[in-house]
Amino acid sequence: MDQISKLAEEQARRSGRPPSPKPLRRVVAALILRGEGPDREIFICQRRAGQPMGLKWEFPGGKIEPGETSEQALIRELNEELGITATISDRITTVHHSYRNGSAIEIEFFLVRDFEGEFVNHVFQQMRWAPIASLPNYDFLAADLTLIRDIASGKLL
Question: What residues contact residue 45 under an 8 Å CB cut-off, 6+ apart?
Answer without folding.
Answer: 57, 58, 59, 60, 81, 124, 126, 127
